[in-house]
Amino acid sequence: MKKRLxxxxxxxxxxxxxxxxxxxxxxxxxxxxxxxxxxxxxxSMLLGAKVNWQSIGALAPTALQGIRHASSLNLIMAVxxxxxxxxxxxxxxxxxxxxxxxxxxxxxxxxxxLRSAIDQWGSGSVNMFSLCCVFTGTLILIRPAHAIxxxxxxxxxxxxxxxxxxxxxxxxxxxxxxxxxxxxxxxxLAFLLWRKHTVTTLLQQQxxxxxxxxxxxxxxxxxxxxxxALTGLYNRREFxxxxxxxxxxxxxxxxxxxxxxxxxxxxxxxxxCFGHPTGDEVIQKTAETLxxxxxxxxxxxxxxxxxxxxxxxKTSLDEALVVAEKLRLSLQxxxxxxxxxxxxxxxxxxxxxxxxxHQQGSLNALYAAADLALYAAKNKGRNRVESQNIS
Length: 391
What we know:
Layout: H1 2-54, H2 61-90, H3 98-119, H4 127-139, H5 144-165, H6 169-226, H7 236-253, E1 257-264, H8 267-274, H9 276-292, E2 299-302, E3 307-313, H10 317-333, E4 336-337, E5 343-344, E6 348-355, H11 363-379, E7 385-387
Parallel strand pairs: 6-7
Antiparallel strand pairs: 1-3, 1-6, 2-3, 4-5
Helix pairs in contact: 1-2, 1-6, 2-3, 3-4, 3-5, 4-6, 5-6, 8-9
């Protein structure tokens, strides 16, 4: 018994959490239909008042009084709905909440109770209460807990009102039974409408979350496709794309563009002596050193195992040589401390080239010249800077 009670409590809590997720969407959905709901209701109220006034004739005093009261009630309800519509439209962002919609639904059901009570003086019909129950249950999204309270309260009020205005015990019993059926039907419709809305909204939310996650993963993949996984620098493909864009800009604006190619000296010894994890750490620290000693407008990329390249916009060959020498000294003077407490002194060779304003050439030409300069630096003893003009 205790386990069943705990299960019931957990189920109620789960449903409450589920309803909380869709409550705001339900409010917005009902507000979107609010002009249609109020428009139909106001038209019905005014039409009912007109028909009632036109039907006044040689009626018994009680029936005549009932028709007058019914017409007056219709007019009062129409005025109330017009006021409610203006209020909801005026205060859409501030006052349109669940309480406002519950007040609107309550007014429909109270109207149905009062009209059916008045109708007992004439036709003895409870059709208006039935219509209001169905109307409210199908057009206004109400949380199940609120719907139970709303329909239970309205039926109790209906039950009492019938006893006050219907003196025939047989008709009274029939009307009370019909009223109960109407309230039960309205409640069922409210449940079904809310459940449909809940399922649809949760599916939409899940779909939106999935789309956002796919978009996020797509953005991550796009970023990863541009970056080197080990260092976080640009990879060769992205460097080529950015470099070509820069060359077009340089040609349009008439400025120099330089390239520095760097290759770590005797890097194979690091892997052989300390292992590849330490070699990866050296690559990462080298990338950090290069990135920290260039301008924000410069572009640095890893294009091979231990080979890096730097694009320097608006930079002449002489200026690029100064930058390369600065980078060489930074690597030479800052020993790398590894996670296994190893101190590794690392140097690199640099090849520099530049495309002057008056020159015509491509990125491949820059690559070729920088590679020749790097080859020369290696042949002349490493840990040095060499330059090569574009042929």
